[in-house]
Amino acid sequence: MGRVTAPNQALPVPPADLPGTLGALRAAGHRYQTVKQELRHNLLARMRSGEDRFPGIVGYDDSVLPEVERALLAGHDMVLLGERGQGKTRLIRALVTLLDEWTPVLPGSVLNEHPLHPLTPASRALVAEAGDDLPIGWLHRSMRYGEKLATPDTSVGDLIGDVDPIRIAQGRTLGDPETIHFGLVPRTNRGIFAVNELPDLAERIQVALLNVLEERDIQVRGYQLRLPLDLFLVASANPEDYTNRGRIITPLKDRFGAEVRTHYPVDLELELALIRQEADLVAEVPEHVLEVLARFARAVRESPSVDPRSGVSARFAIAAAETVAAAALRRAGLLAGPAGSPAAGSASAAGDATVRPESPVARVGDAVSVTSTLRGKVEFESGEEGREIEVLAHLLRAATAETFRARLAGLDLSGFTALVAEGAMIETGELVSSAELLHQVGTVPGLAKALDRLGLGDAPTPEQAAAGVEFVLEGLHLTRRLGKDVTDSGRTVYGGRS
What we know:
Layout: H1 22-27, H2 35-49, H3 64-74, E1 78-81, H4 88-94, E2 102-105, H5 121-130, E3 137-140, E4 145-149, H6 156-159, E5 161-163, H7 165-169, E6 180-182, H8 184-187, E7 191-196, H9 203-214, E8 218-220, E9 223-225, E10 231-237, H10 239-243, H11 250-255, E11 258-261, H12 268-278, H13 287-302, H14 314-335, H15 370-373, H16 388-408, H17 414-421, E12 426-428, H18 434-441, H19 447-453, H20 462-478, E13 484-486, E14 492-494
Parallel strand pairs: 1-10, 1-11, 4-7, 7-10
Antiparallel strand pairs: 2-3, 5-6, 8-9, 12-14, 13-14
């Protein structure tokens, strides 16, 4: 794709106080800067002011971002190497915020030519003829970014340009730049152009990019057009494709001034911060459930059953959190029952005459659906064919047990085990309301401390308390202190010894 402005998004309107003519621009003291000089200047300004240089980028403060900043300050074109879902594209798009908010352009120029630095003969003649009276336009930085996902069928015409036969028929010659229909790269002149998955480009396309990087000119169908393009070129690639498989020509690799390795979140807190920032949750997901999902994603990433070359995207944990929230919302919707009638298992079933609507709050049992809905996001080793859900279910149980030990270690939970030792059977499941679950449990010694450890506060809602109770029951089962059975209807019954 090219510009990243949404199809129906209104373009920013330039402030009225910006110069409207070339003479006014000169009088305002405006100086021409290349894109790389502009990035360097604005990055240094943010460093001095303490402003956030890369808003929305999580987990790279001490590793990736210093290398990116050094590349920008050095004026080096850059390639980001990392497995899928490590935020490479997000980081590339964040570079746009380091451009000037508004920059002057010659109106109608497809190359975004600067009034003080025209490129084409026609533009130079226009500036010379009109002089200081030449009207100028202003381009917002959001329109100075181009992006292309590299695919084997990408052509030179897509990226660089092609001869326009209609213009040839109108009498123009091949020596005239007006003959060329420019591609994405020249149209992003005076901006940032990104190539995602660079090694997937055919070699002849890589050669065309090499010319842009080295000579800053373009070649179309054997015709060389001298255009000193002003670009910051940044690419992304899987490190194996880039370094081992020979899918990129060596001269092009040599032209990138900086190779920056990205990575997944290095610790659990960063994984959680990323989920909180990126997940669009349609229901409340308690912190202990988010922690289970974060540990689950990290366990999948480290599992020997998963192909490490493809990685496990950060989007896996984000989608898992969104799926769990959706399961909670579904439960709340179904428990509302038909209009005007109480739902089965509602508060009235627990002896309360008032039917209280179920609020959507996720429980650890809702995570079970993740193993089937998200298995397509994981590339397994060939020997694991047919066992994908089994592998993910095992890793989810391990993540739940780790979270249980981390959150509730040393806490006296004998009240729960004593409850089932007396013959009580506690039934929970996707369509068991919070009131029904809490009614089965009753008053249990140690419950308040457990809920406090889980971050549910001094006065949790019934739905939050039910989420905490279910987590305790599942943790006791996984640590072999409580039995568990699943009924034919899909409900889970805790009771007896594991």
